[in-house]
Amino acid sequence: MTGIARGETFFNSTHSDNTEEFTIPVQKAFADDLALVTFGRTRKILETNTNNALDLISQELNILKLDISIDKCQALGFRSISSRSLSKHNTTVFNSNPSFKLNGRSVKITKTLKYLGLIFDNKLSWNPHIFGLYRKAYNLCSNFNGLIASNWSVSPSLLKFWYLTVVEKALLYGAAVWGGALIKSQIAKLHSIQRMFLLKLSRAYKTTPTNSLNILLGIPPLHLVTKSLFIRFNIWKLRSDKFRELIDPISLDFYRDINFISWNRKIIISEDFTDYDYEVYTDGSRISDNVGFSVCFFERNSLLPVFCYEMNSFNSVFQAELAAINFDAGWALERNVKIKVFSDSKSSIEAIRSPKVKSNFVLSVKDNMYNAKDLVSLVWVKAHAGNPGNELADHFAKIASSCGADMSIPAPYSFSFKEFLMNEWNSYWKNSTTGKRTKEILPSANLDLLISNKYVIYLFTNPGPFPAYLCRFKILNNPDCLCVSMEMLTIT
Questions:
Q1: Dihedral sign, Cα of residue 262, residue 319, residue 325, residue 384
Q2: Which InterPro entries does the UniProt record give (predicted)?
Q3: Planar angle of CA 485, 491, 492, nearest 5 degrees
Q4: Measured between alpha carbons, how far is 421 from 419 in angstroms, rounded to an integer?
Q5: Which of 41, 113, 286, 412 could hold 76 in an S-S bridge, CB 3.0 to 4.6 Å?
Q6: Contact 448, 226 (CB under 8 A)
Q7: Is 309:406 a contact under the CB 8 Å cutoff?
Q8: Cα–Cα nearest to 80, from 110, 118, 37
Q9: CB under 8 Å to 63, separation ≥6 — which residues?
Q10: Domains of the chain and CATH, by start
Q11: Distance (Å, whole) CA 154 – CA 307
Q12: Which band of pLDDT confidence, cut at 50, 70 and 90, is reported for residue 446?
């Protein structure tokens, strides 16, 4: 239920386990919207709980001398999916709507309700939201048309980047919530919405298959991107174990509350030692899906045995660099010796010094660095500048990425589901019944591909200014090429 509260107050209504008790903590803020979520095992209990909460809200508003616009209030009622068998039509819709009252006036019960940019419906189908994307798409497409039709000679790669970062993000707002179980009609609607932009970007014929345009432009189908966003949300935010075939939730990094961490542990600034026992060079490397790091210790310019560690494919080079620094700190603590660490990863050093980092993995590195603050000096060195120690660490890091000892580190938040998306896209493309000519030339998808030459697109997709194609639509009477017709006339 939503409504408008007039005033500089924001209400956060919480429901305790006891359905008779409601608490409404009040804090000063700017807001003009109030949302109330209640539940009940039966329609009667739902009415009672909701009306009790509305009465308490009304009392608090009167105390604060605020009023609420009842005409703008709306309520959306639905059964839970588990109890929909109690409905006459086996849906989430109530057989008869409950009655909600605020200050003696009935609150309007609607079939759809827009809140925080999402359109909810009483069937929990998300159809109104997905079908309503057309209006947003037309507004975005008008801006897209302005760029394409201009004489600015905007590069196709820039237009593709604009589509992926602006248009797609706007269309898929909230996809982590509504993209879990798309039905056939919803997928078709997303196809038609995306098709508007694909045709504009490619300048292809309107009869060109959408699947072919996706492949030629390197833009994944919208419903597959939606699915990947939904899975990402379930894995990262809900820590769901339903997708263990992709990644185990236990292997994920997480954010920690840094409000209770002391400042001397948040900001780690190591001293630049002039007197130390060992000189250390570290480096991380990624080659294809292989990630690793190396640590090279020098004692009086003599190289000691090199440590090489291989990490998981989902780990980043940034994590590898941090893991190398963390290894150095642990090594110095274990032997109680002073070391000077040279790293060419400025981002890793800045992360250790930053007070805003919340990653549990980075914070654990900070803890080790704090404990070894009197033993470890961390210095940045320019990469590939002819420094023998740094070049040696770089050489061994490349070897470590495929031949090092195993080291397990949580997956970073930058971990993407690109591999999952590509597998889904290739499977969808392989099983599609359209775009056969394109499939013969390009049997697999590639995100980096961008064919912008319209004549090449004509050739790869079949629809184009060819006599055989134009004859199908009665534009030409003869499907043969002009040169073939002339040759036959000469022979005659």
A1: negative
A2: RNaseH-like_sf, RNaseH_domain, RNaseH_sf
A3: 90
A4: 5
A5: 113
A6: no
A7: yes
A8: 37
A9: none
A10: 26-112 (no CATH), 125-250+415-491 (no CATH), 260-406 (3.30.420.10)
A11: 50
A12: very high
pLDDT of residue 473: 60
Q: Return left, alpha or beta for 68; rule: phi > 0 is left, psi -120 to 50 is alpha, else beta.
A: beta
Half-sphere exposure of residue 160, counting CA atoms within 13 Å on the CB side? Answer: 17
Q: For 37-50, write each residue's pLDDT tens digit.
A: 998 888 889 999 99
Radius of gyration (C-alpha) of the chain in whole angstroms: 31
